[in-house]
Amino acid sequence: MRAITYTQPGGTDVLQLVDRPTPEPGPGEVRVRLAFSGVNPTDWKSRSGTQPGPDGQVPDQDGAGTVEAVGQGVDPVLVGERVWVWEAAWQRPHGTAAEHTVVPVRQTVLLGPDASFELGAALGIPFLTAHRCLTVAESLPDRLSPGSLNGRTVLVQGGAGAVGNAAIQLARWADATVIATVSSPHKAQLAAAAGASHVIDYKRQDVVAEVRKLSSHGVDAIVEVAPAANAAIDAQVIAPHGAVAMYANDGGDEVTVPIRSQMGPNARWQFVLVYTEPTRAKDVAVEDVNAAVLDGAVRVGEDAGLPLHVFPLAETAAAHQAVQDGVTGKVLVDVTR
């Protein structure tokens, strides 16, 4: 099979297109013939700083395709099913930048007949991260479904990013009021297309003042991409028993929180890394995200606020570079090309 691999950490130049034996699924595993691979920031960060195993590493965590074979203990009825895949490369050698991957069966989710493979490959890391960010506050339910966030207000800092887009779509599916911040008129259009109820351009508007106009009691959840830059804002708009969920470190590696002002509302400042979140939280996130997909509530593409940038497998290095450079939208690798 054709696969992208690297045998040492480094820049995009370490990624090589090679021919490798098609992997066989072991007990409890399935082999998926992939259609698309999704590229996330953690993919290039892992490639840059993590030593791969002696046989090399196939990068990328997310993907979508068709179950082709099953290992011992897995129901063969799954063969031929369309699925999306999450965390394929987490502590495993077979990521999704290849024609085939092998993963534990629990890391494949039935995609249904209507959702595209492009959508499936865009789900994993961004949507599971967004789900965690939307459910860590003590005042909010730990499951998402239609109506579960009715009467609640969510602030998505960076509403045009992949996780921001996912948070907007999931929160709106759950009937929350969603306020998104962006840095340009074009990104404002993307956040609105994703479903944001209100959009604030933080380069031209006072975020605290605008949020207070929209929600006098504050916001119940903050999905935060840049905590070092936004901590002072977040501290002023968090509602009683709300949570600031920090899933990235855009704009700085250290965050300063005003202690006294956060004690009054019993605010929670929560760090989020999807790979190491509690098992139950991951399991229910997978279930809830897939329920939203089956409801038709999750979309990709320009009209969903998430432009797609698709590269052939041989240009996976360019796909990684695009994510590293901060391209707006979702980067996918078409592994069939």
Automatic annotation (TrEMBL):
Keywords assigned: NADP
Ribosomal protein as UniProt keyword: no
Annotated Enoyl reductase (ER) domain residues: 10-333
InterPro entries linked: ADH-like_C, ADH-like_N, ER, GroES-like_sf, NAD(P)-bd_dom_sf, Zinc-ADH_QOR/CCCR
Keyword Transcription regulation assigned: no
Region named Disordered: 1-67
GO MF entries: oxidoreductase activity
Bias (Polar residues): 1-10
Protein name, as recorded: NADPH:quinone reductase
